[in-house]
Amino acid sequence: MEPIMPINPSYTAAANPCVASLIGVQPHCLPLIYVISGWHMFSDESLGWLKTIDGVETRSGPCFDDWPDDSGAARWVRAWEPMPQEGRVILAHCNKLLSWYPAFAGRYTSAWGKSYAPCKERSIATLKPGEDYYRDRMWQVCRPQALAAHDAAMGTGGVGLEATPPFVMRALYGERVRLVAALRSPVDRLETSFWVHAHYPRRYGASAEGLHAYVTEQTAAFSECVGEHGARRCAFLFELLDRRYSDVFFHCDQIIRGLYQPFVEDWHAAFGSKALLVLRVEDLIEPGRGTPQPRRLPRRRRLRRRRRRGAAAASLVRRAARRVAAGRKGRPDAQRHAEGCGGLLPPVQSRPRIAPRLASARGVAALFGCLGESLS
């Protein structure tokens, strides 16, 4: 799977998993803590306080197992230079690492790619008059061959018997890693993704009916795949399994991103509850539910953080409101919906500003919910 990556090397007793030499880098330390989540999860808002803990050094680097070629592992290792200060642990935040599926599979589909690209090139070069690669060769020859190559390289035996990213990470780290997974309600996450990505309202309609049509189509397609291949295989390889699934609009990607079980099952099997902590985002952003709250920062630092988060969240929600409003021009209530939620959102044409309700992650979640309700 990773020809130049060592298997469970001898780590030092340092706080981070450090080695004297790793793929030509001497000495070197890898991140000890990974925050893994997904898009539209509000994981940064709910777990951002981890980065403020004394002794934690947050680093921005490429996600593990997300390099295109066999030499990519060396680049990933070098991305974590320089050595951290003594006694400080490295924390990495990677949304993409939680799940793997064809659009964002990283190394998981590398064997598929190594088979498919040469086959496509050969097939196009040998097309007969009147033949078309996409009609006559892609699904008849190259895609099945690539899938067979993937299965041979990664395995098909189920949990613990396939080279999924958690088990590749386990081979490198052993027990010297800690993972925090933040999961949001799949229904809320799916609704947010529909409004934030303009291509969904544009295709299905910027309305409650459009959202319903989108969800109906996507869940039906994924359910059909599950009936034939099982949920695990469909979550990992959906559009690579059959032309029918490849033709589904955006390949059920938002459905799969909220289908946590097959992915978390592998993470738990690889690391167990000792190294993996799975949290509900709602428990972290809604106070009073029994989840320990982070230590209180000085007032000035709290205000600076709120401004930064509020500005980012306001921009995200405002863009969604503009997209929805653009699709509703000519309707009597277009301006009311564009302004959003009874004035909670700033008018679409106004100068950018931070709405008061966007001062916290809880406010962001509430505004997204209100945005969906106002369009129903």
TrEMBL record:
Superkingdom, according to UniProt? Eukaryota
Residue ranges annotated as compositionally biased, kind Basic and acidic residues, are: 330-339
Ranges of Basic residues composition bias in the record: 296-310
As one GO molecular function, the record gives: N-acetylgalactosamine 4-sulfate 6-O-sulfotransferase activity
Segments carrying the region annotation (Disordered) are: 289-310, 326-345
SUPFAM superfamilies named among the record's database cross-references:
P-loop containing nucleoside triphosphate hydrolases
Mind listing the GO biological process terms from this record? hexose biosynthetic process
Q: Which PANTHER family match?
A: CARBOHYDRATE SULFOTRANSFERASE 15
What's the name of the protein? Sulfotransferase domain-containing protein
Q: Look up and give the organism this protein is from.
A: Emiliania huxleyi (Coccolithophore)
